Each structure stands twice: as structure tokens, then as C-alpha cells.
User: Which sequence fits this backbone?
């Protein structure tokens, strides 16, 4: 797909909200990114996908707009979500701390750099705490200046992985001490992060955790850029992976099956592990226990798919693209 002038300024926000069982409300949040309170459509903004997971009770809304417009779209969606979702009544097996749990901003176009995304993320964090009194946020990635700590590290520091976080012990970067209704929101910017979930046909969570440990980036021999959780899911175990983009070219022994997709930000090349490699590694490790895999789900798109679909949707004037994508073959 040919690049467009708008495409060169595009960014994506994969907005994570702590609700999936009331899909109509999640769609209301998505539409708030697209239309102002008077119902007027925002220019050059589209929602490509809404991924709902019932067991996790978590949805991911893929919002794409220009770097100049993304802030208002995301803030409007967050404001609506905070009015609809209450962490005091939330249940789900996926870790979470906020009604709006995660606001990551990723550059898609070659004219958008790290600092612009960082500034926009910090502005969104500030805007959220001003618009919705009682909300609070921590910063990660490029937005976490000067340390630029990654999402996994910041989540660990905030107690995100604990079953019950002590909100009063948390010191957010923006806003007051977290309140039980809204919880705590992570806001940041980084190279594109994919979500790839592989389901193994067992209910043995200990086995799932051993597989997660084996493929995690921090383990010797693990997959670069891959952060992993093993979670119970629909009577099986899901190996849930955040696939971060990495600067270093992948090791040659990890590229035999499929080349790693790559892209450039400000002249710096980034690479990310393909879903096929993650699936193969999980399948191999599960097979050692006599367990098979049931499938792989990519939550959203690869960076190239995301930009290509966004350019197509915007060129066709399709705001609610998630309703159209099953009928459109790229």
C-alpha cells in the first residue's frame, strides 16, 4: 500500500479497558474516540478493532489518528470509560489496576518520532487526571523521562501483578493517590507492541508458567522482546505474550522459519518476533509434556497491518472500521 501524507503522521493507541462482558458499553467507549459530544465525527480518526475477552474481562480498542489528533480521541474515550466502569465491582482473571488500565501510544508513520509520542503520552496522563477527578497514572517507556523504564518494570513497581494491590502504598507519577473506583492507569509511548496469545490444551497452570518462563526475554534462550504471563482461560491455559519491538537484529537461529518483521523510527530499525515463532516455541515446550496447542490469537495487528488498514479506512472515510473489517479483504 502506497504511503500517504496522512499516513506519515499516524500513531496508534491500543487502549486497554477493564470490561469485556458488556460489549455495548465497550463500543460506547470506542465511539467516544470517534465522535464529539454533539455527535460530530472527528477528522482523520478510526477505530480499527475491538478485542473483547470474557474471562479476562478486558478489551483492547485500537484507535488510530494523526499525532496531532490522537490526544483528544483517546481522552474522550477514557473519560467515557471512567464514567461507565467501576473497579470496585470488576472481576476477571487478567491482572489489572485501572478501569482504564493501559494507554500506550505507538508511532506508525515515519514523520512521528519518539519525543512527540512521549510528549503526547504525558499530555494524555495530565489531561485524564484533570478531566476525571480522582484518576491517577504512572508513566512508562519514552514518556517516563529520564529513566524510560519499560512497562513490565513499571507494572512490577506499582504492584500490578499482585492479586490485590495496596493502592495506598502507590505513588503515581500524575494525579492523586489511586481511588478504588478508577484504580491506576499506565500511560506511555514506545515502539509498537503486539499481543500474541497461544492456548495450550491443559488446565495445568504450573505447566503454563514453566512455558512462560522458558520463552520470556529475561530467561537465557528466551525470545527477545517477549514478556509473558500464563493465565487460566476458558478451561485451558493461555500463554499471553506482549511482543515488544527490539533494536538488535534477531539471532540467526531464531530466523530460520520466518524473517522478523521490521520497521524504522527516526532512522532506527526495530524488529519483533513473529507470531509463528512464538507459537512454534510454545508448541514445542508443551509437546514435551504431551500437551498440544489449540490456537493462536493476535490481538489487533502487526505494525505494518495497523498502518495499512488505517490508511485504507481513513481514505474511505470509515470511522467504525471494526464493523467493516470482516467484509474487507486487503
Assistant:
Amino acid at each position: 500500500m502506497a504511503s500517504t501524507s496522512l499516513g506519515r503522521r499516524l500513531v496508534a493507541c491500543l487502549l486497554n479497558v477493564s470490561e469485556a462482558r458488556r460489549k455495548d458499553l465497550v463500543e460506547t467507549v470506542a465511539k467516544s474516540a470517534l465522535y464529539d459530544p454533539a455527535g460530530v465525527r472527528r477528522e482523520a480518526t478510526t477505530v480499527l478493532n475491538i478485542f473483547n475477552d470474557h474471562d479476562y474481562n478486558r478489551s483492547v480498542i485500537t484507535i488510530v489518528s494523526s499525532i496531532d489528533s490522537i490526544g483528544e480521541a483517546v481522552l474522550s474515550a477514557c473519560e467515557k470509560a471512567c464514567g461507565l466502569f467501576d473497579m470496585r465491582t470488576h472481576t476477571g482473571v487478567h491482572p489489572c489496576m485501572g478501569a482504564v488500565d493501559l494507554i500506550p501510544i505507538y508511532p506508525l508513520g515515519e514523520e512521528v518520532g519518539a519525543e512527540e509520542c512521549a510528549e503526547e503520552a504525558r499530555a494524555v496522563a495530565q489531561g485524564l487526571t484533570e478531566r476525571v477527578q480522582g484518576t491517577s497514572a504512572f508513566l512508562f517507556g519514552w514518556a517516563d523521562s529520564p529513566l524510560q523504564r519499560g512497562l513490565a518494570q513499571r507494572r512490577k513497581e506499582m504492584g500490578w501483578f499482585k492479586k490485590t494491590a495496596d493502592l495506598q502504598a502507590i505513588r503515581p507519577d500524575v494525579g492523586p493517590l489511586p481511588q478504588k473506583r478508577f484504580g491506576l492507569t499506565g500511560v506511555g509511548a514506545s515502539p509498537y507492541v503486539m499481543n500474541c496469545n497461544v492456548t495450550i490444551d491443559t488446565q495445568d497452570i504450573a505447566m503454563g508458567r514453566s512455558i512462560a518462563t522458558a520463552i520470556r526475554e529475561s530467561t537465557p534462550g528466551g525470545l527477545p522482546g517477549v514478556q509473558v504471563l500464563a493465565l487460566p482461560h476458558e478451561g485451558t491455559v493461555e500463554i499471553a505474550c506482549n511482543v515488544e519491538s527490539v533494536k538488535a537484529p534477531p539471532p540467526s537461529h531464531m530466523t530460520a522459519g520466518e524473517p522478523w518483521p521490521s520497521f524504522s523510527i527516526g532512522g532506527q530499525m526495530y524488529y519483533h518476533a513473529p507470531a509463528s515463532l512464538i507459537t512454534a516455541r510454545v508448541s514445542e515446550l508443551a509437546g514435551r509434556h504431551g500437551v498440544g496447542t489449540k490456537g493462536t490469537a493476535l490481538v489487533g495487528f502487526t505494525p505494518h497491518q495497523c498502518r495499512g488498514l488505517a490508511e485504507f479506512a481513513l481514505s474511505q472515510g470509515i470511522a467504525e472500521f471494526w464493523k467493516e473489517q470482516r467484509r474487507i479483504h486487503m
Summary: The helical segments are 23-34, 70-84, 114-131, 151-158, 205-215, 275-287, 303-315. The radius of gyration is 19 Å. The mean pLDDT is 94. The longest helix spans residues 114-131.
